[in-house]
Each structure stands twice: as structure tokens, then as C-alpha cells.
Write a structure and sequence with these properties.
Blueprint (H helix, E strand, L loop, with lengths): L1 H23 L3 E7 L5 H14 L5 E7 L4 H14 L3 E4 L4 H13 L4 E4 L10 E5 L1 H15 L4 E6 L6 H14 L5 E7 L5 H14 L5 E4 L2 H13 L7 E6 L7 H6 L5 E4 L4 H12 L7 E4 L3 E3 L3 H41 L4 H80 L6 H31 L8 E4 H18 L3 E6 L5 E4 L1 H18 L5 E9 L4 E8 L6 H4 L20 H11 L3 E7 L3 E9 L46 E5 L3 H11 L4 E5 L2 H11 L3 E5 L7 H10 L8 E5 L4 H9 L4 E4 L4 H25 L12 H15 L8 H8 L3 H12 L3 H17 L6 H7 L5 H12 L3 H8 L5
Parallel strand pairs: 1-2, 1-3, 3-4, 4-5, 5-11, 6-7, 6-8, 8-9, 9-10, 14-16, 20-21, 20-22, 22-23, 23-24
Antiparallel strand pairs: 10-12, 13-15, 16-17, 17-19, 18-19
Protein name: histidine kinase
Catalytic activity: ATP + protein L-histidine = ADP + protein N-phospho-L-histidine
Enzyme class: transferase
Length: about 900
């Protein structure tokens, strides 16, 4: 019986401890502001939240439906803030009206999770939702494969102005630009619901009966499109693609399986992920701010697998709910039994029986929790398989980006070694024979052509990965095209080709990106000049088409035209034509088409064999506000090279004379891993500077710290440690922080140049570079460093000799000044003593002080002593001899001589001039 009582007391103690632990577990209140619950997709989002919340019984969940009203949604969020919620989840009805109240909640310290629709601000804790632009791109690529890259497409958009509709349309349109055979012939707006399609689609299909495919922004719109097609007898001919991919009897998966629509794109509601993110935030666990849900195409090839998976997940969820209900009942039983135990503790037999029941219930709970954990693990494994497809696509895109970057760098480095010596030989003024000068000009012209091809490859990469923005400024299109044509005047005249320019008006104002259109018109004129025979004619005309709100620029030639087999492929990347005589890169026309579409324009052509070709660029008169640059940028100069050999002669492009001022005493350190470029730089700089060289970043940093050079020229792409890291380490070390650094690299993108300047580089030059310009830049940097050195010298010449450590160089001067001031009384203070206190060598200290102040260390110590002497002489408490000995001068006479040499008065005369005799 004692053992039985002990067991009962033990069980009661365990129950009491468990109750105390459960009571100590914190509870949370989560508020969810939903824009609407009026469609199946939103109901699936709420169901996912409820399913995930079943794992967190400590959470109180409150949901408020705004019924598509932004004002009501703002009111709901304010009510949540007054109710004292711990976390807010918002699915915005409209981005701009809801943003202020979301920012207010965030600024109050309440975590905010944005679900599906973004706000216009970045003031939120985390975002969970799909990438609507990626959904559009995936749909566009799938449509291209489904139609075999040929066909006419109609797009049914969601509510006008809503962010999902805008982003899906943008991604879909961008994807179609890669397939010239696909035409987006029409758009139909809707309110996301099927009746709007039933009302508006029949008239569109009757007007355009040659539509091959309809892309609807959700499955409800796709179902409406199918019903309209069936009424018109077009259901067998027109293919339909939707978005959402919901399970269930009326979901997109079932529509695909029934053959009503051809495919649907999975767009996860994100309810479960939003609750998981909320719990990570509330429990102070690590989380990502941006959580983009993956998408995939569901068609006849995988619809059965997806349906089986969703049905299995639903079945498992039902099992989980049944087990959770059983767990709840077990917990209720446990609570009632616990109450009975406390009330009937004196009844040993009843307590023993109740303890047995509690023990069995505990085992059952543990078994159920184990089963739940196994099932959750299986669900996570299936979800990870789906996400693996999206990850594979991302890895392939990154590999392509690295290939183009490395390819550009490998080409620019040998071009540097070609163009640099050639430019110097052509502009040096030496007596180069005419034949040799002609050959050098030929080398330069073809090297520049190689550089142009490299730039075209980089433009292709930017368009392919969406990294080329449009920055339009307002200008005169006629004058812009006229400047580009001027480049072609001389080569056309040499071949007897008539170059005509026929603008309809002398001035045509237009918003356009000069950097983009310059490449478009240059490629078109270059092609026209290449394929036009001698005594032929090229005509460029510009006219406004008021009916289309557009401007047309036509480039017409009298060449041999384009063959029928080439017409279908003329705009494909790297296509050179079946019967082409003048072989090129195959990128010019494809690049022109991509850039024109990027500018929201169109590029078309007409051609007849033997009669010439006409290429027409159509540009909109008005561009969206997001494509207009806030600050006007100057128009770029036209390109200086043509495939046929347009290049300015050396006499036409004189280089400025080199500035004087840098002497051969200056030490320049070169850090370049390419042996030939390294040797080329050493050869060009050695006549003007002392030069040392390193072939990797680690060696360069060591040589910089040992020798303290006056200037460093460094490549960006270095083995082991990059040039950007070298610059950062140089600027962090006070021994080398003052040294100007010039970065030489083949990475020419604007964002890469900004990255180099942010790292601390004083100048960023791209390969290939002009050796004369590099030399001039180095001399200018050294001249500016002399001005900065004079600034520091003046700053240290005032009465207070301590410099505020605002920068690394100033901190070095502050430390140096403090050490000298602390040892002013020592007459035997040497340069070695100061260097030892700073932890550097005597040579490093001398070069650092010489570089920053332009003076020696001994002169600096003497200056500090004399500056301190002026302060002490202003008081009459010390005699002149005492001041001399206190400041470390060996004799008063030496002190007087040094003081007079510095200030032109003796110490006694200085005291007499600056002190007032006592009464």
C-alpha cells in the first residue's frame, strides 16, 4: 500500500508539474485582415491557416473580411491595434490605401506579415506569397511550347490596377517577346469572376476568330472562357490556360483532368506558410523577410499525380484532425481525472485506479504525437519535392549569368593588351611609316569590332535576365537619328552610296532612352550599309502615325533582300542566314528587336529578293511614368566603329597633353594576376614612376604594408582574394588607408562600377583602357593627394595639435600626436621609439608620415615641441630654461635657436609680445 500511495503521489506530482508547465506556456493573439473571402482561392487560404493553427492550440486567431473595401480594411486593422494583438497578417485589397495603417502597426512594434498582395512600403516584418510576374513568365513559356512558338493569344486579365493582374500580365508579355511567332492580339479586363468573362468575351471572339489560345488570370475566368467557346463552337480549336491550380471538385486540377482547360499554373494560397512564418516571428526563431512561393504548370502530363497528392494530403489532414479531436478528448479526460485526483486524494483505491488511467492516457498522447510528427515529416518531404523544380531553374539561371560575366572578362583582358599598345603607337607622334600606320589602324579597327561584339553579348545577357532598365528622357528624335547617321556619311560616300534622310517634321519631341535606341538604329544602319551594293541608296524616314499614337522610323536599302528561308529566322539570336556572304555575329537584329520591345516598341521588316529590305521601328508617343528618368541624362555619342570599318584616324582624335607634377620619386604598386597585362602596365608606368608588381591580392596587401606606395593599381578579378576585398582591407588599415587605389576590370556594368566605388576605390577604369588616360589619371590622383597632405599639415599647425579621429588617417595622426605629446620631456626620444609605440617599423612610419604630412618624423616631433612651447611661454610660472628642459631640449640655447628659426622671434621676445606686465 505504501508503494501504491507513493506511486499515486508521484503521479500527482507529475500531473501538477505538467499543469504548471502548460500554464507557463505563453499564448498569442494573431489578427488576420483579409481583403475578401468571396472566392474559392481565398477560402483555400483560410482553410490552410486553420489547418496549420491546429498545431498551435495556444494561439487565438481572429479574422476580419473587408469585402473588397479598402476603407473597411483600414477600419479592421485599427480595431486589431486597439484589441492588443501580438501579430498582424494582412492581405491588402489595394496597395496604396492600406500602406499607411500597415506602416503605423509596424512602427508600433507589432510584427506584420504581408500575405499574397504587397503594400507600397518596405516597412513590414515578412512577406509570404507567390511571384505573380514569375507566374506570367512561366505561363508565357508554357504557351510557347504548347503552340510550338506560333499562334495568336488572347489574355483575360484580372481587376484593372490590382497588383496580381499587373504583374502576371508583365511577366506573360515579357516571356512572349522571346518568341516572335507568338502574337498577343488582345486583352480583356475582368473583375476576377466568371460572369465578367461571359459578358465580354463573346464579342471579342466574334471579332477575332483566329485566336489559338486564351490565357486567363485565374481558373474561374478560364472556366468562363471555356463556356463562351463552347457556345460559339470553338472549344475544340481554342486552348485555355488558367492560374491557381486548386484541388477539389471545382478547382483547376479537376478542370484540367476533365479536359475543360489545357493547363493551370499552381499559385499556392500561402495560408499554412503565413501561420508558420507568424509562429517563427512570435517565438523569436530565425526567419527570412521575403518568402516567395514556387509555381509549376499542371497539365495532362502531371494532373493525375497532383490530384492523387492533393487527395492524399486531404486524407492525411482528416486523419490529423481526427487524431487531434481524440487528443482534445484525451486532454479533457485528463483534466477531469486530475480534478478527481485532487478531490479524492484520500481514497487510496480510487487514486490508484485514477493514476492508472492517467498513465495510460499519457502513453496514448505520446503515441499520437509521435504519429503526428511522422505524418508532418512526410508532408514536408512532398512539399520539398515540388520546390526542387523551382530551385533547379534558379541554379541554371545563375550558371548562365556566371558564364557571361567570365566570358566578358576573358575577352576584355586580351583586348586591353591589343588596343593599349596600338593606341599609344598611333598617337605617340613617332615617325611610323604610312604602311605600318595603315596596318596599325586595321588592327585597332578590328579590335574595336571585337569589343563591340563583347558589348553586344553583355546586352544580350542583360535582356535575357531582365537587368537592362529603361531610363527615358525627353528629346528631339529627328536630331538624335541625324547624329547617328552622321557616322555613316563617310563610309557611304567612299562606296558611292546615297544616304538620304527624310523626316516628316524638323522636330519630333519624344520620350526615349538614348542608350537603347542608339544601339537599335546603329545596328539597322550598319546592316543596310553592309548589304547595299556600290552606287546603291539608303533612305531613313521618320513620321508620326497619329491613329496609332506612335512614331515610325524606317530604314530602307536597295540591297539584295532577304531570302524566304531566312525571313522566319532573321530575328533569332546568332542566326547568320543560309545565303549570307558577309558573315557577322548573328546578334545585331536579334539585339535590336529585344531592345525595341524593351522600349515598348515593335520592329518589323519587309523584303523582296533582289529589291532590297525595309526595317520599321514603331515607338509609342507616350511611355509609362515608371520608364521615365527623374533626371535628364545627356544623349550618348554615337558608336565609333562599324563592321565595315568606321574609325577615326589618329589625326582626328588627338589626346590631351599629360599633366605635369608627378615625379619619378612616386612609388606605384601594380596588383594584376594576368602576366601579360602586369608586364604591360609595368612597361608603361616605369618611365614615369617607381614601380613594383604583385600577381595576387595577398602578396599585394603584404607589399603595400611593407613599402607604403604612393598609389596602387589593382585588378578586380584576382585569385583567392578579389580586388574589392583588397581595397576594403587597404582602407581599413591605417598604414595604407591614405593610398589612392585605381581599379582596372572588365566588369563594366553600372552596378559593378558603383560596387567598386563603394568599396573605397578612388577611380574605376574598365578594360580595355587607354594607357595615356591611365597615366593622366594617376598623375591627377597624386596631385590631389598633395593637396590633402597640405590640408593635414595646416590642421596640425594650430595651437591644439590633436586631430579629431573622424577618418582612418586622422586617427593615425591622433595616435601619433598623443605618443609624441606623452614623451615631450624626453630629450632622447627617437623615431624608433615612436615606431615601436605604434607597432610598426621605422621605414613604415617614415613613409606614412611623409605621405600624409609631407614631412619627416623628426620634423613632426620638433613641431609638436615648439607648438607646446608657445602655450607654456604665455604663462610666467616657468622660466625659459625650465620650458626648454620640460619639452626635452638639451640646452636653453638650442631651444632659443629652434624657436626663433620657426617663429622668427626669440622665446623672450614672444613672451614679451603676448603677456601683459602686472600692475
Amino acid at each position: 500500500m505504501r508503494r501504491l500511495i507513493g506511486c499515486i503521489l508521484l503521479v500527482l506530482g507529475i500531473l501538477w508539474a505538467g499543469q504548471a508547465k502548460a500554464a507557463a506556456k505563453p499564448g498569442y493573439i494573431i489578427g488576420f485582415s483579409q481583403c475578401t473571402n468571396g472566392d474559392a482561392w481565398r477560402l483555400a487560404m483560410l482553410a490552410g491557416m486553420q489547418k496549420e493553427l491546429s498545431f498551435y492550440p495556444e494561439v487565438t486567431f481572429r479574422m476580419k473580411d473587408a469585402h473588397n473595401s479598402s476603407a473597411l480594411q483600414e477600419k479592421h486593422i485599427r480595431e486589431f491595434l486597439q484589441e492588443g494583438i501580438n501579430l498582424l497578417i494582412v492581405s491588402a485589397n489595394e496597395a496604396e490605401p492600406v500602406t499607411p495603417i500597415v506602416e503605423e502597426a509596424y512602427n508600433r512594434g507589432i510584427p506584420v506579415v504581408i500575405l499574397d498582395r504587397r503594400t507600397t512600403s518596405k516597412l513590414y516584418t515578412a512577406y509570404v506569397g507567390g511571384n505573380n510576374e514569375e507566374v506570367g513568365r512561366t505561363a508565357g513559356n508554357y504557351v510557347a511550347n504548347l503552340l510550338r512558338r506560333q499562334g495568336r493569344v488572347l489574355e483575360i486579365l484580372g481587376a484593372p490596377g490590382s497588383s496580381p493582374a499587373v504583374d502576371r500580365h508583365r511577366g506573360f508579355a515579357q516571356a512572349l517577346t522571346a518568341y516572335p511567332g507568338l502574337k498577343l492580339v488582345g486583352e480583356l479586363n475582368s473583375n476576377w469572376e466568371r460572369p465578367s468573362v461571359l459578358a465580354g468575351l463573346p464579342s471579342v471572339l466574334k471579332a477575332q476568330q483566329d485566336i489559338d489560345l486564351i490565357f486567363a488570370h485565374n481558373d474561374r475566368l478560364a472556366l468562363g472562357a471555356y463556356q463562351v467557346c463552347k457556345q460559339l463552337g470553338l472549344e475544340q480549336r481554342i486552348k485555355i490556360v488558367g492560374v491557381d491550380g486548386l484541388p477539389g471538385a471545382h478547382g483547376g486540377i479537376q478542370l484540367v483532368q476533365d479536359g475543360i482547360i489545357n493547363a493551370t499554373l499552381l499559385y499556392s494560397p500561402g495560408g499554412e506558410e503565413a501561420i508558420r512564418m507568424a509562429m517563427k516571428i512570435l517565438r523569436k526563431q530565425p526567419y527570412e523577410k521575403e518568402n516567395i512561393l514556387s509555381t509549376m504548370v499542371i497539365d495532362s502530363t502531371n494532373v493525375l499525380t497532383m490530384k492523387l497528392q492533393t487527395e492524399k494530403l486531404a486524407s492525411q489532414q482528416q486523419d490529423i484532425q481526427r487524431q487531434q479531436e481524440l487528443l482534445r478528448k484525451q486532454r479533457d479526460t485528463y483534466a477531469s481525472q486530475q480534478t478527481v485526483l485532487y478531490v479524492l486524494a484520500a481514497a487510496l483505491l480510487g487514486a490508484a485506479l485514477l493514476g492508472l488511467l492517467v498513465w495510460r492516457a499519457f502513453r496514448a498522447n505520446r503515441r499520437i504525437n509521435h504519429q503526428l510528427a511522422l505524418q508532418n515529416q512526410e508532408i514536408l518531404s512532398q512539399r520539398n519535392q515540388i520546390q526542387a523544380f523551382a530551385e533547379q531553374a534558379r541554379v541554371e539561371t545563375e550558371a548562365k549569368l556566371r558564364f557571361f560575366t567570365n566570358f566578358s572578362h576573358e575577352l576584355r583582358t586580351p583586348l586591353t593588351l591589343i588596343l593599349g599598345p596600338v593606341e599609344e603607337m598611333l598617337t605617340s607622334g613617332s615617325n611610323v611609316p604610312a604602311a605600318h600606320r595603315h596596318d596599325l589602324s586595321l588592327i585597332r579597327r578590328n579590335a574595336q569590332r571585337l569589343l563591340q561584339l563583347v558589348n553586344q553579348l553583355m546586352d544580350f545577357r542583360k535582356i535575357d535576365v531582365g537587368k537592362m532598365p529603361v531610363r527615358a528622357t525627353e528629346g528631339n528624335l529627328v536630331a538624335f537619328v541625324r547624329e547617328i547617321m552622321d557616322v555613316f556619311e563617310r563610309p557611304a560616300r567612299q562606296r558611292g552610296i546615297s544616304l538620304r534622310f527624310l523626316p516628316a517634321q524638323p522636330v519630333i519631341p519624344l520620350w526615349f532612352d538614348a542608350n537603347i535606341l542608339d544601339k537599335v538604329f546603329f545596328n539597322l544602319l550598319s546592316n543596310a550599309l553592309k548589304f547595299t551594293p556600290e552606287r546603291g541608296q539608303i533612305t531613313v524616314s521618320i513620321q508620326i502615325v497619329a491613329a496609332e499614337q506612335a512614331v515610325r522610323v524606317s530604314v530602307e536599302d536597295t540591297g539584295r533582300g532577304i531570302s524566304e528561308q531566312d525571313k522566319a529566322h532573321i530575328f533569332e539570336w546568332f542566326y547568320q542566314g543560309q545565303q549570307s556572304v558577309a558573315k557577322g555575329s548573328g546578334m545585331g537584329l536579334a539585339l535590336a528587336l529585344g531592345l525595341t520591345r524593351l522600349h515598348l516598341g515593335q520592329l518589323a521588316f519587309t523584303s523582296q529578293a533582289g529589291q532590297g529590305s525595309t526595317f520599321v521601328v514603331t515607338l509609342p508617343l507616350e511611355l509609362p511614368a515608371n520608364l521615365k528618368a527623374s533626371d535628364a541624362a545627356p544623349l550618348p555619342a554615337p558608336l565609333l566603329t562599324l563592321e565595315e570599318g568606321i574609325a577615326a584616324s589618329p589625326a582626328e582624335t588627338p589626346l590631351p597633353a599629360l599633366a605635369q607634377g608627378a615625379t619619378s620619386e612616386a612609388l606605384v604598386l601594380i596588383i594584376e594576376d594576368n602576366p601579360e597585362v602586369n608586364a604591360f602596365l609595368v612597361q608603361k608606368l616605369r618611365p614615369h614612376f617607381q614601380v613594383s608588381a604583385a600577381t595576387d591580392g595577398t602578396t599585394g596587401l603584404r607589399m603595400a604594408a611593407d613599402t607604403i606606395p604612393d598609389l596602387i593599381v589593382c585588378d578586380v578579378m584576382l585569385p583567392e582574394i578579389s580586388g574589392l576585398e583588397v581595397v576594403a582591407k587597404l582602407k581599413e588599415d591605417w598604414r595604407t588607408s591614405h593610398i589612392p587605389v585605381v581599379l582596372l576590370t572588365a566588369r563594366s556594368a553600372p552596378e559593378q562600377q558603383v560596387e567598386g566605388v563603394q568599396a573605397g576605390a578612388d577611380l574605376y577604369l574598365t578594360k580595355p583602357f587607354n594607357p595615356t588616360f591611365l597615366l593622366e589619371s594617376l598623375r591627377t590622383l597624386l596631385a590631389n593627394r598633395d593637396k590633402l597632405r597640405e590640408h593635414f599639415r595646416r590642421e596640425l599647425s594650430v595651437d591644439t595639435a590633436t586631430v579629431a579621429p573622424q577618418r582612418v588617417d586622422q586617427k593615425f595622426l591622433a595616435d601619433l600626436t598623443a605618443i609624441v605629446e606623452a614623451n615631450l620631456t624626453r630629450s632622447d626620444l627617437s623615431v624608433e621609439d615612436v615606431a615601436r609605440s605604434l607597432g610598426i617599423s621605422r621605414v613604415q612610419l617614415y613613409r606614412k608620415v611623409k605621405a600624409v604630412l609631407g614631412t619627416g618624423v623628426t620634423d613632426f616631433i620638433q613641431s609638436q615641441r615648439l607648438t607646446k612651447a608657445r602655450q607654456l611661454l604665455l604663462t610666467e610660472e616657468l622660466t625659459i630654461a625650465e620650458v626648454a628642459y620640460q619639452l626635452g631640449f638639451s640646452t636653453p640655447s638650442y631651444f632659443s635657436t629652434s624657436f626663433k628659426a620657426r617663429y622668427q622671434v626669440s622665446p623672450s621676445e614672444f613672451r614679451a609680445l603676448h603677456t601683459t606686465p602686472s600692475a
